[in-house]
Amino acid sequence: MFLPGGPGVLGALCLCAVFNTVDSGMLFPQESSSREVKELNGLWDFRADKSPNRNQGFERAWYKSRLAETGPVIDMPVPASYNDITQDPSLRDFTGWVWYEREVVVPARWVADEGTRVVLRVGSAHYYSIVWVNGVKVTEHEGGHLPFEAEIGSLIRKDPTTPCRITIAVNNTLTLKTLPPGTIQYMSDRTKYPDGFFVQNIYFDFFNYAGIHRPVLLYTTPKAYVDDITVVTDFLDNTGLVKYTVSVQGATTATLKVTLMDKDRHCVASSSDQSGVLKVVDVKLWWPYLMHENPGYLYSLEVRQSDERSTQDVYTLPVGIRTVNVTSTQFLINNKPFYFHGVNKHEDSDIRGKGLDWPLIVKDFNLMKWLGANSFRTSHYPYAEEILQMCDRHGIVVIDECPGVGIKDIRSFGNASLTHHLAVMDELVRRDKNHPSVVMWSVANEPAAEMPPAEYYFKTLIKHTKGLDPTRPVTYITDSNYARDKGAPYVDVICVNSYFSWYHDPGHLEVIPIQLNTQFENWYGKYHKPIIQSEYGADAVPGLHSDPPMMFTEEYQNVVLQKYHDVFDQKRKQYVIGELIWNFADFMTAQGITRVVGNKKGVFTRQRQPKAAAFILKERYWRLANETGILPPWTKYPCSQRTFTYAHTLFL
Ligand code: BDP
């Protein structure tokens, strides 16, 4: 593991770290009559450790006193990436440890009541984090896109008169064994590079934003509490089936009351067992957006846990009742064919980088609905839980991807990498298993799956994921290199990315029909599994025009889309079950000669304004929705194109 100039604190820590244990639940924090939540978002003190070996913070134990006492600090918003917050290029491009600190006044009753668990939770921090409370280490976590937490009650009770000082050190270094992988390269030629010069190499196409990306909060539970709930749903005719398991911690015996309520809070089924099957008569199924007039229907599963005297803990889980199945040519939701007409996204925006931002989230959902998109893939890492909750409520279908992107070096197929990859899948499934919107797991994007160790690697990874969740299909995303199919025998759905007339035969739009046709025939011919075109597209600099079309103009992007669409229209009658545009919006990347301030394949700009391609896609997606789904009556096609466009504008 890296630390420039030294053996590396990160390396030493990794050896002794308790990695990502998943023997407890990771329920989304929520307020209830037994639980309180205190958000710690806002300004934190911040310092990047710019010492040559990035190790000064540990050598001088910055966690032992207030950060402002050990050196200068700046304001840093949480959640946000730190990279684009200042005017300092060395912070934008920083690699190594950064330090965050915040003092919190904990409510006196939390401290006084020994029966209250106080949990510190970080929604995500990129990439490796160590957390101290009042100078005492409480947890560490590897991985940038998933939550971690620690019980800190006993620590804050040690000295109730002092505020609770939370210090979080975060290191964004990527190595061959991290997910995503990367390498640190030292440049030792002193005629070319200054002393200590190194670069972080990455093998993926988005900026390695870093920092505390999702909310940090304190929440309470009683000593005996609902630790986890797992729900699997099915239906038979008009009866919904909700198979559930509740796990309780902190009590040897627990009395439970499990109540399933409809949207009007009427009880539709209940039980007092720790696990069982609830039957829902006249079930309202969870349907995707544009597949039903009432998409995203959610019941609430209220779990009350009590002892002989009183209710101890209450937790309520949203539950959508739906099934997912795959045949050799179809993707079925509630036994009806579902066609993915959607987008690939990134968590990415101006200034915030990958920091969670509610205005952006809501804007993006409005844009997806405007576009008529019914789905997206969380390319190339797990997105915030808040986003998945929106998907549940709006009926937007999700392919949930882990951060296995850029696995290109043979050394990243070793045992240590595989063990970590399995652990990340454990954490991802633990977090997202109950979301009805999540219909498939993606274990990697464009790995070098032609390499000899890839077959064992993906066989193990996919089997493991199916073992964690037998109810959802599993895929990995391949590119158009057919040799990269070593994992394909184990997936349920083939997902292919291709960039004909862009990376291959640039400028030759006329090759798209034949090459795309060949792509589909080859994959289907060999594997007889349904196929999703999981990426396709072209860069377009907004406002750049040419006719006849040239690369990087809006016209060229339009034609690429149209030519792909023509082939999709033939193949979707056979075994192509979806199309996801690359990309929903322009996004930031590392600097390089093929990127003009980021990747410009968005149909929206980074500021979420439409390029011409957005209108082409909108027209198509509404047309597809009309053919394959159920739209509210006034949006029905055929009617004149003008009425149709006008009607669905009204509908939105
Ligand atoms: C694909 C990658 C994606 C890139 C895209 C591109 O999966 O991350 O951003 O290419 O080059 O191969 O635009």
TrEMBL record:
Keyword Membrane: no
Signal peptide: 1-24
Keyword Lipid biosynthesis: no
GO cellular component labels: extracellular space; lysosome
Domain Glycoside hydrolase family 2 immunoglobulin-like beta-sandwich, chain residue ranges per copy: 224-322
Glycoside hydrolase family 2 catalytic domain segment(s): 324-625
Enzymatic reactions: a beta-D-glucuronoside + H2O = D-glucuronate + an alcohol
Regulation: Inhibited by L-aspartic acid.
NCBIfam families given in the database record: PRK10150.1
Record's protein name: Beta-glucuronidase
Source organism: Lates calcarifer (Barramundi)
Chain's gene name: GUSB
